[in-house]
């Protein structure tokens, strides 16, 4: 099962995301649930990195079955953009966890809660 944690600020802006584990729906390299999770999270990272405005992400996807990224410096990136990316992740992961509850555990934390992720 993949554990996915989304952390947002009080105003709904994305702060960090972590994903650990394997969905276990299919064989490694052929797991459609794992592919969907990876696609959602990597697209969210790409959208954040493609914008201008000085946004800095700390990220780590160096180990198979783990992906993490955190907004370190927001720069001039709008709150709307960070909320939109958080909504994209939330909606996608909630949908996956509802359709494949044995494969995906999604939860969302406020920024004051400890996600137990990252460093």
Give a written overview of the molecule.
The chain has 119 residues and is of the alpha+beta class. Helix content is 34%, strand content 29%. It has helices at residues 32-50, 79-99; strands at 2-8, 14-20, 56-60, 66-73, 104-110. It has a 5-stranded mixed β-sheet with strand order 3-4-2-1-5, covered by helices on one side. The longest helix is centred in the last third of the chain and has 21 residues, at 79-99. The radius of gyration is 14 Å and the shape is globular. The relative contact order is 0.28.
Give a concise summary.
By secondary structure, the protein is α+β, with helices and mostly antiparallel strands. The protein has two helices and five strands.
């Amino acid at each position: 099962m993949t554990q996915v944690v989304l952390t947002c600020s009080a105003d709904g802006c994305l702060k960090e995301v972590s994903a650990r584990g394997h969905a276990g729906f299919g064989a490694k390299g052929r797991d459609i649930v794992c592919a969907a999770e990876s696609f959602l999270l990597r697209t969210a990272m790409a959208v954040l990195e493609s914008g201008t405005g000085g946004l800095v992400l700390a990220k780590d996807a160096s180990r198979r079955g783990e992906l993490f990224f955190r907004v370190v410096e927001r720069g001039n990136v709008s709150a709307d953009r960070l909320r939109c990316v958080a909504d994209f992740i939330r909606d996608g992961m909630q949908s996956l966890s509802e359709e494949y509850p044995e494969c995906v555990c999604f939860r969302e934390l406020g920024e004051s809660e400890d996600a137990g992720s990252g460093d």
